[in-house]
Amino acid sequence: MGPDPAVAAVRVAVRRVLADLPQGETVLAACSGGADSLALAGALAFEAPRGGRPAGGVTIDHGLQDGSDERAETVVRTMAGLGLDPAGSTAVTVDGPGGPENAARDARYKALDEAAERLGAAAVLLGHTQDDQAETVLLGLARGSGARSLSGMPPAFHRQGVLYLRPLLGIGRTTTRRACKAMGLEPWDDPHNIDPAYARVRVRHQALPALEKSLGPGVAEALARTAGMLRDDADALDDLAARAYADLEVREDGWNTAVRLDGLAELPRAVRTRVLRMAALKAGSPPGTLAAVHVDAVDRLVTAWRGQRHVDLPGGLRAVRRSGRLLFGPA
Q1: pLDDT tens-digit profile of 289-314?
Q2: Which positions are annotated as binding ATP (predicted)?
């Protein structure tokens, strides 16, 4: 008799991503102790040895709640009990711009980067699920974001030389919880996950259930599926924009970046605005504050110029149209 279907689903998802990784190199599971990452850790502990790969686990103690250090140690013992070796915890200090959620995420990823480098890990697996993806898409819709944001979380990405993988983006939260129960694992429910002060929590417990009630079941799956299709579109458009930028970029003394206007206006808007965003980012405008409204204003210098002097951009920069070129530099 085989494993519970939920356990099998999580194991298959992990097995697929492990197949693309080098044999003999360590893979880490980032485990908070919640149902999603705990099911992930259990699946990794089962699958990695069968593929000839060492597997470990790491949990991050954000220090935001009383007893967080004790819970971190409990997670470490659980991971070790599953057979993950090494299994350890890292304490971080949560501060910085962007609110507590962003600060906690930044601190968490920095700690994971350092753990992966220290342990020589080929990859770090994250426990984000299909439900997390649906929530991300809805949050992007609420912000009026573009296709890149609406494409949700990528299944794989690099940062600081570390490969991060999300094997469970096609698996729902009910499946991971059932998998934990079948494996005899007791997940920890973070009280922050039911605190309506957080926008994601309101989406999870209010917006998505309301959509399911009004439109019928399967909304989360449909949103996640849509995210995948939009990611393909966004990847193709970004590739076209990168080629166009390479053709249009020129050097201009005294300016951070510059692009030729000749050929820029004729580009499809979806490609042209990406070129303009690339130019602004290369000039030094911070990606977290460079918004669509800024890019649209720069685009009007290209397509609807009526003698406007310049467009101010985040980071103390400005865009100026001059002598057949669009120039980006200090204000």
Answers
A1: 888 899 999 999 999 999 888 999 99
A2: 32-37
